[in-house]
Amino acid sequence: MTSQLPILAVAPLLFGAFAVTAGRFFYRRANYAVAALALAASFSASVLLAVSVLTQGAQVYFVGGWPPPIGISYVADPLSALMLAFVSGAALTTFLASKTEIETSYPLKNSAFYALFLLAVAGHMGIVITGDAFNLYVLVEVAALSGYAILAQGKDRAMLSSLNYLFVGSLGASLYLLGMGYLYIMTGSLNMADLSAIIAAQAPGGLVGVTALGAAFAVILAGLFIKMGLFPFHSWLPAAYSFCAAPAAALVAPLTTKVMAYVLVRMCLSVFTLKAAWSVPAINSLVVFLATAAILYGSFCALAQKSLRRMLCFILLAEVGYMAGGVFLGNRAGLTGTIYHIFADLLMTLCLFLAASNVERATGGRFADLGGLFRRMPVTAAALVMGGLSMIGVPPFCGFFSKWYLLSGAMAAGSYGFAGALVISSLVNAVLFFRLFEIGFFGRPGAACGPDEAAGQARPGAVPLFCDEMPAARLAPLCVAAASLVAMGLLTGDFVRLVADAVLPPGLG
Amino acid sequence: MHGLLAEFGDKFHYYAYFAIMMIGLYAMIAKTNLLKKCIGLGIFQTAIMLFYVSIGAKQGATIPIVDPALGTADPALYANPLPQVLMLTAIVVSVATLGVALALVQNLHRDHGSIEEDEILQRLRGQ
Questions:
Q1: How far apart are CA A349 and CA B103, in angstroms?
Q2: B89, A185: Cβ pair inside 8 Å?
Q3: Does A232 touch chain B (CB under 8 A)?
């Protein structure tokens, strides 16, 4: 049973997607339950897998019983197993929190949304666990195509933004495929473990001597940066995430950029090997420069936004810079910071986007309408405060620890520009969120609270407590997401010991 | 000059796929017509497929299906089947991508009566 866990983490989602698609012709009302069941099954398999990998060591699963390099292998090491648990947990949380939101955002298309949601999650799970470089490309496209379809349903500009995302995203995936072609010419293999052994033998001094490997690395990086939304390739991200319906944003925003950052780490760590990946100084300094630019650009654009979700989208751009920069600082602290930040940022984005979805449902989400938020929606606002404090980097929350590792990595590497950008981004986040808190605590509620409130009563004191609060079914998943920020922060030491130290090569300084 | 020609002749398929890829990229960046952008994306992806198939080709080799007359002893007699198999998958992916893109374009046309990106943006700003 435990030996089958890697496939059991992904398979329920695929079968669930088919069952939901077929179910719309038979018994439509069961579809929500079927989809939730598939997500729950996948989540429990991932958690069991993570526990067994963390206690007993990495597992390799041969899909269909074919051993690599001929067959496709699924590799569950501490990093990928825990990532699986986080991805499926985030998807399950979003799905449970968004039941009413899905039913109102996608009238008549519930079943299609459930199927696409499951396929998107299956794609992301597959990307995380696969040990085959070409399989990874196919799964990137599975995840992305379902993503385009669910992001396209929304207000005015959603469809055009999603189409632009499709063009840019397909370009990124194609570049990854092209780079993989170079790798295949040089090595004759597509299995990641096989590739890293051959590359280590071919390029003992790094990529500098072997031009084609260097070209493959550069093209793959370009493809991944486009899919991650790193600074010069970012234009699709805020547009695609800010116009779509709230559940789609709450699903795709925590998953896509983080899973792509995971692929970046995976490529550097287990395909090209760190020695080769860091062997070209020009690439290292270019990526750190782009990351610095991304952090500054994202932070300052976030200052200019007038609605909650758009502000979060630009903060997300800055977070992408954190993750890309940390990989290429060239030391252990930077890479640990990136690995930790992938998980921490997944939780932070999940918490903030779920809170934003509640706020939007009640108020529309424009800053001008958020007055009195802490009285009208105390629980949602509390979660928003926790997410915000974590983004700023206040100690018990997980955001602090990733910044700590990244900063010490940047200092050790001498990248003072990157270190400065990290600090500035923290300060800008503090301004952003405290402005939000000020509006929420002291702002006057503009629109009437509930249909029967007269405009004359709109004093902060006159607004009844909890008057706009969401039902408990939406608040419970949000509270879990917010609590996980503290839990992740408190468990930092264990996380670094069990995950980062387990996957990083031992001699790394 | 001779060396340059030989270099070009040996690797002409790389130059060819690169030229085709750039044509596709140009269409995606420079055209405002959404259908032309879709076509550009198709050209871009096809160039990568050509690249893959060309690296599996060998001088004088036949298609990768076992021929009883040739036997299986000498793999040099057959083209490398793996890149072709990979590209079959990539073709399926690109068909699906094109399908989603065309569905989106069709919906945009239904909502805005145009497939020109600048006209649609103008209408959206007007709202």
A1: 30
A2: no
A3: no
What's the mean per-residue pLDDT of chain A?
88
Give the minimum alpha-carbon distance from A181 to chain B in angstroms, rounded to a whole number: 6
Residue A455 has pLDDT above 60, yes or no: no
Q: Report residue B92 as tokens.
A: 């399926």
| Cα–Cα distance for residue pair B119/B109, rounded to 1 Å | 11
- Interface-testing mutation among A135, A142, A163, A194, with chain B (most B C-beta atoms within 10 A): A163
Q: Of the ranges A66-75, A293-302, A464-473, A481-490, which one carries the lowest mean pLDDT score?
A: A464-473
Domain boundaries, chain B: 2-126
Taking the Cβ of residue A177 and every Cβ of chain B, the question of whether any pair is shorter than 8 Å is answered with yes
C-alpha–C-alpha distance, residues A88 and A92, integer Å:
6
* ipTM rounded to 2 decimals: 0.92
Chain A CA closest to residue B32: A164
Question: Which stretches within A157-280 are classed as H helix?
Answer: 158-187, 192-202, 211-228, 236-243, 246-266, 274-277
Specify whether domain B2-126 bears CATH 1.10.287.3510: yes
Chain A CB within 8 Å of residue B44 CB: yes
The residues that bridge with A285 in the sheet, in sequence order, are none
- Is a pLDDT exceeding 80 seen at residue A504? yes
CB pairs under 8 A between A and B: 67
- Pull the structure tokens for residue A137: 């490309």
A191: left (phi over 0), alpha (psi -120 to 50) or beta: beta
**pLDDT tens digit sequence for A348-378:** 999 999 999 988 888 887 888 888 888 888 8
pLDDT in tens, B59-82: 888 888 888 887 777 777 888 888
At which residue do the structure tokens 């009208």 appear?
A376
- Cα first-last separation, chain B: 61
Q: What count of other Cβ atoms lies within 10 Å of the Cβ of residue A238?
A: 23
> Mean pLDDT, to the nearest integer, of A168-186?
93
Mean pLDDT of the A174-197 span: 90
Q: Please compute the mean of the pLDDT values over residues A321-325 and round it to a whole number.
A: 93
Residue A453 has pLDDT above 70, yes or no: no
Q: Distance between CA atoms of A275 and A470, rounded to whole angstroms?
A: 51
B120 with B112: CB under 8 angstroms?
Answer: yes
For residues A74 and A46, is the Cβ–Cβ distance under 8 A? no
What is residue B69's three-state secondary structure? coil
State how far the Cα of B102 lies from the Cα of B115, in Å rounded to an integer.
11
Q: Report the pLDDT value the prediction gives residue A335, as an integer from 0 to 100.
A: 92
Whether chain B has a CB inside 8 Å of the CB on A163: the answer is yes
Residue in A148, A163, A185 nearest the CB of B55: A185
Which chain A residues are within 8 Å of B39, Cβ to Cβ? none
Distances (CA, A) of A114 to A100, A238, A256: 13, 24, 18
Q: Which residues of A touch B23 (CB under 8 A)?
A: none
| SS3 category, A326 | helix
Task: State residue A506 phi and psi, 5-degree precision.
Answer: -60, -35
